[in-house]
Amino acid sequence: MKKRMLTGLTALGLAASFAAMAHAGTVMKDGPTPYEVIGGMSVPKPLTDKPGDPANGRKVVANRKKGNCLACHKIKQMQDFLFHGEIGPELSDIAENMPADEMRLRMANPKVVNPDTIMPAFYKSKGLYRVMKKFKGKSILTAQEIEDVIAFLRTLK
Ligand code: HEC
C-alpha cells in the first residue's frame, strides 16, 4: 500500500516536471544577445525595446547584402524589384498566416524549426566557421533590423 502511494507520487512529480519543461523556454546563445525560444516555435519577446520600423524593414528585405529575402521569396507588394525567387514560400500574405513571435524565430534561426532549411539564420553570430574577419562575431542582421523586417512582414496581407 505504502509503496504504491509512493510510486503514484513519483509519477505525479514526473508529470509536473514534464509540464514545466514544455512551458519553459530554451535560451539561444548563438546570437549577439541571448533570446528565449518557446515550444520550439516562437520568440515572444522582441530583440530590442525600440518598436520595428516597417519602412526600414522593407529596405532590409530588398538589400542583397542584408536580408536578400527576394532571392528566395516572392512578395507581390515589392514589384518595384524585378527578380523574385521561388525557393521559399511566397510571403505576400504572411501577416495573415504567421504571428510575429513565430516570424522572429524564422528570422533569428530557422534551423530551430527545420534543421534542414536552406534559409539563413540572420541572428546567428557564433558557431559559424570560415567567416571573413570583418564579419567575425557579427550576425547578418542586427537585432533592430530583425524587428524592422518583422514590422514590414506584419503589413503583408
Ligand atoms: C536562401 C533562400 C532563403 C532566403 C535568402 C530567405 N529565406 Fe525565408 N525561407 C526559405 C525557405 C526554403 C523557407 C521554407 C521553410 C523552411 O525551409 O523551413 C522559408 C521560410 C520562410 C518563412 C516562413 C513562411 C511560411 O509560410 O511558413 C518566412 C516568414 C521567411 N522565410 C521569411 C524570410 C525573410 C523575411 C527573409 C529575408 C530576411 C528570408 N526569409 C530569406 C528560404 C529563404
What does the model show?
This protein is mainly alpha-helical. The protein has one domain: Orthogonal Bundle (Cytochrome Bc1 Complex, Chain D, domain 2). Helix content is 35%, strand content 4%. The protein contains 5 helices and 2 strands; from the N terminus they run αββαααα. Strands 1-2 form a two-stranded antiparallel sheet. Strand 1 (26-28) and strand 2 (35-37) form a beta hairpin. The longest helix is centred in the N-terminal third of the chain and has 22 residues, at 2-23. The protein is globular. The N and C termini lie far apart (62 Å). The model has no long low-confidence stretch (mean pLDDT 88). Bound molecules: heme C. Heme C (HEC) binds at residues 61, 67-69, 71-73, 87-89, 91, 94, 97-98, 103, 106-107, 110, 114, 117-120, 122, 149, 153.
Layout of helices and strands:
Elements: H1 2-23, E1 26-28, E2 35-37, H2 54-62, H3 94-97, H4 100-108, H5 143-153
Antiparallel strand pairs: 1-2
Bound molecules: heme C.
Heme C is lined by residues 61, 67-69, 71-73, 87-89, 91, 94, 97-98, 103, 106-107, 110, 114, 117-120, 122, 149, 153.
